[in-house]
Amino acid sequence: MRIYEKYFAKQVYLAFVFILFAFSGLFFFFDLINELNSVGHGNYKFSYAVLRVALQAPSRFYEIIPVAALISAIYVFAQMAANSEYTIFRVSGLATRQALGSLLKIGIPLVFLTYLIGEVVGPYTDQLSERVRLEALGSAVSSDFKSGVWVKDTLTARADGEQVTRFVNVGQLQPDATIANVRIYEFDSQFRLSNVRLAKTGSFQPPGHWLLKDVTDTRLISVPPPKNQPADALSPVYRAEQSTLPEYSLRSELTPQILSVLLVSPDRMSMFNLFRYIQHLNENHQDTQRYEVALWRKLVYPFAVFVMLVLSLPFAYLHTRAGVVGVKVFGGIMLGMSFQLINTLFSHMGTLNTWPAPLTAATPGVIYLALGLIGLKWVERH
Description:
Blueprint: H1 3-35, H2 46-55, H3 57-82, H4 85-91, H5 96-137, E1 149-156, E2 163-173, E3 179-187, E4 193-205, E5 209-222, E6 238-251, H6 256-259, H7 271-283, H8 289-300, H9 304-312, H10 325-353, H11 357-381
Antiparallel strand pairs: 1-2, 2-3, 3-4, 4-5, 5-6
């Protein structure tokens, strides 16, 4: 890096660290207040609430990094403009394109940091955070349905290659990925109910089996009609064979990673887990729109750091008479908050209207990048 680039980088990084931790501390305080409602229930003490909120801090870092990059760069450039430092750089031959290229270089480590937190640290600590809370409360994960979680599982499970479709109902999913109150409805290739299994508990056995315990297995066998009477497809007759087993090993495409989707919202999952879950949904012919939007947002979001830095550069060309440093920083905060708002709004609109996921994820960034480039053109001319 050139001497002036090192100077820019030092100033921006110092301001970035300060702003990142300042905003994170603010969010930590609000998250802790929100968590106090659960303190006192079960074994959930104040120390567990602090631990849970602390484990959520990496995800807060991930959300804040682009905005912190914008505010820190605006602050640094506003200070330079107020002290006429940036004017000296321009007189010395620093063109706008060179300044923009240098600023994007400074943003590269921040982009890598965003990917690292979003893909490795954040998803892991979020799951730990949920487990701390659930284990302290003595509760289990469940969906909004009173009957629990419903999952579709399709596989080729028989020697003749016939496809089997299962609808699995998990009454409770424990933080350690064990399941309880399990009901499995199995259908043959003609979508006829062929088997019903009930199990009290179950645990995953790699690479692809669930060990169910206290199993009641009910097999439904079709009964042929009496002689000289045609079969009635609308009113079939079955006989049931029921057996009780202490244990039953069930081959399944479902894994704890797929079920762990319930522990973390799609926006806080890693791209790898999102991709695997989308594959599972596609194989079972289920809607993937919400998770595709989340996947593309995770892919595109770190590059918002570059967009924010482009937006910050026009502030270096505004002289002190155009506004004091505090006003410029406040404007940067509002600009960053508006980006987060538009980004979230597009995510929900894209999910509701089934817009293409790449378009939904990239549009806010493209809009604000255009605003930044237009701002640079304007300040150059004036």
